[in-house]
Amino acid sequence: MIRIASVTAIPISILIASSAFAADQPVLKGPAAFGDWRADKPGVRRLIKPEDLPKPYVTKSASNSAGLADMPTGAKPQLPPGFSAELIASGIDNPRVVRVAPNGDLFVADSEANQIRVYRLAEGSAKPVENGVFAGNLNQPYGIAFYPPGDDPQWVYVANSDSIVRFAYRKGDLKASGEPETIVDNIPSNHHWTRDIVFSRDGKTLYLSVGSGSNVAEDMGKAPDGGLDAWLKSKPLGATWGSEDGRADVLAFDPDGKNGRIVATGLRNCSGMTIQPATGALWCVVNERDALGDNVPSEYATSIREGAFYGWPWYYIGNHEDPRHKGERPDLAGKATIPDVLMQAHSAPLNIAFYTGKDFPQEYQGDAFVALHGSWNRGNRTGYKVVRLLFKDGKPTGEYEDFMTGFVVSNGEVWGRPVGVAVANDGALIVTEDGNGTIWRITHGNSHS
After folding, report:
1. What is the Cα–Cα distance from 45 to 401, expressed in whole angstroms?
2. Is the distance from CB of 345 to CB of 288 less than 8 angstroms?
3. Which residue, of 63, 242, 358, 384, is most buried by count of CB atoms within 10 Å of its CB?
4. 423 near 101, Cβ under 8 Å?
5. β 67-69/413-414 pair status
6. Domains in the chain: ranges and CATH
7. DSSP states of 153-198 as a string?
């Protein structure tokens, strides 16, 4: 991408932390929820339901990638009142997933540099006292997980685009002490390459997300070898074949990489996973398909149910049939699981983290933060922000709220593209963005230095 240096025309209101807060505004519903970046600000809430989706092709399919501006001097994201953003690091090649080690170290996948970076912060501060490369010579690393879960992990697992490897680990290690051990190999890696991993709460299951190899299975073929009837008898509901065999799925393995199996199908690109602390449920954020119009289909976050089919490529958001596969799978009509939280189409959710810290106000407890990387297949830009999914008694309300905005500087330029979200041991929210390669620490009240 081209960095655009013409930042002098950027409105100052976009560059400083906003004092505007919209919690007292009505929730935007239906077509009113399909706005763009100009309406985004902390506190704006949206609720999108399956019945709100427009029909396909109401608008033309846009190609509207953002020009990348340099981060203006002194720029900070916009946050709700009482919150502050501090810069931990900048100039990183491609910071993506961030995960917090039990001792508080931040492990960051620097994907295009093929390495995992680590940052140790001074207590109560955004200032790294140590940082370096934990491991290099990887292959587009993305997901990171510590095993076993808990206070004393013995391994760091890393999901490359084509494999899962693990490194021996002792609490406080800033550099891998040995070579990686391959746990799972032969993962298909073209097109959607972001492989996330997470362990179940009891540590017995390793989950892996594998995105599709295409937008909407254009090259998969109409039927698998041996015929559809035979395929249906031997495969999970909604399983794909050919070039998409084993893709658009969430898979599960034992911690040693054995006993591989399909957990759920029809997830076009589950780029981020986490375990909900309150319930132990696995959650996914999913990038849906392109080229059906500005507002269809919605992106989503959802708990993953064993054996569930989420629609791709034949259906989306329940029983909406993709016109490009019309009439191909009547046997799947009505069988696609409807996701829990719908978000604006093409906003590109990449990671999710539940808030369990004590730094933020009580009403944030149990809610989830999602990083939206930003749209390209939309006439009016959306995404490029971190949103908060609202929960009540451990269940999603379906509403989500803008939390961290201000990365878009004009209709053609952005300076930040959020990717990773994680909750630090002190309750701060850690956010990575790969537009200008920065990492941020978000705190509330007087907890920042």
Report:
1. 4
2. yes
3. 384
4. no
5. parallel
6. 3-444 (2.120.10.30)
7. -SEEEEE-SS-EEEEE--TT-SS-SS--EEEE-----SSS----EE
In this structure, the chain runs to a length of: 449
With 0.85 as the threshold, say if the pTM is over it: yes
Cα 310 off chain centre by: 17
Strand 45-47 relative to strand 28-29: parallel, antiparallel, unpaired?
A: parallel
Question: What token pair was written down for 136?
Answer: 């290099």
**Core vs surface per residue 243-261: b (16+ CB within 10 A) or e:** bbebbbbbbbbebebeeee
pLDDT in tens, the chain (449 residues): 333 333 333 333 333 333 344 446 789 999 999 989 999 999 999 999 999 999 999 998 988 888 899 988 888 899 999 999 999 999 999 999 999 999 999 999 999 999 999 999 999 999 999 999 999 999 999 999 999 999 999 999 999 999 999 999 999 999 999 999 999 999 999 899 999 999 999 999 999 999 999 999 998 988 899 999 999 999 999 999 999 999 999 999 999 999 999 999 999 999 999 999 999 999 999 999 999 999 999 999 999 999 999 999 999 999 999 999 999 999 999 999 999 999 999 999 999 999 999 999 999 999 999 999 999 889 888 999 999 999 999 999 999 999 999 999 888 899 999 999 999 999 999 999 999 999 999 999 854 44
Place of tokens 């379906």: 398
What is the token pair recorded at 373? 């990387």
Strand partners, 199: 206
Among 37, 11, 57, residue whose Cα is nearest residue 381: 37
Contact 158, 168 (CB under 8 A): no
φ/ψ of 68, rounded to 5, equals: -100, 115
Residue type at position 113: A
Quickly count: other Cβ atoms within 10 Å of residue 323's Cβ.
Answer: 11
Q: Where is 271: in which H helix or E strand?
A: strand 270-275
d(CA 274, CA 284): 7
Residue 29 belongs to what H/E stretch? strand 28-29
What is the DSSP code (8-state) at residue 141? -
